[in-house]
Amino acid sequence: MTRERADAARNRARILAAAADLVAARGVEGLGMAEVAAASGVGVGTLYRRFGDQSGLLHALIDQSERAFQESFLSGPPPLGPGAPAAERVRAFLHALVDRTLAQLDLLLVAETAGPFARFGGAYDAYHRHLGVLIGQAWPAADAAFLADALLAPLAANLITHRHHDATRLKAGLDALLPPPG
């Protein structure tokens, strides 16, 4: 793996910060490559070489948050990270995933609806594996793979957007889907 040059890393950080600010202010629809370049102090050509196009830039924004989220449930403090009982970790994971999804809902809506299976793969598979392991530990009689899909389904960005669900309702609904303790 090649290390990124220090100036390239600084440019990447400035670009992603500028893009995140623009998305926060104007939404995904208001994100233009020229505006991101101007706001981050780099040339438009640099932006296109680095990210390819607007879609690549959006995916980089998602990836940045995704890496931090995955780090938190793989090696962060309990109950989200290791060290807590499996049932507590499932609940903490789902609640954190609600917050993570809502924080980037507009970006995830674009990414997850880019094609018929765009939601699946990468992050979804990581979530599914993680939940499956924890569910198997917490509720050995449960069909862990099916329950993991059932718990992830309500967190599809298009469903959240369509139903206008908020964090409180999503978390309570997910909690209600979990098997009883013991």
From TrEMBL:
Record feature DNA-binding region, as residue ranges: 32-51
Species of provenance: Saccharothrix mutabilis subsp. mutabilis
Gene3D superfamilies, alphabetized: Tetracycline Repressor, domain 2
Name this polypeptide is given: HTH tetR-type domain-containing protein
PANTHER family, per database record: HTH-TYPE TRANSCRIPTIONAL REGULATOR RUTR, POSSIBLE TRANSCRIPTIONAL REGULATORY PROTEIN (PROBABLY TETR-FAMILY)
The UniProt record lists the keyword DNA-binding: yes
InterPro entries: Homeodomain-like_sf (IPR009057), HTH-type_TetR-like_transc_reg (IPR050109), HTH_TetR (IPR001647)
Annotated keywords: DNA-binding
HTH tetR-type domain boundaries: 9-69
PROSITE patterns listed in its UniProt record: HTH_TETR_2
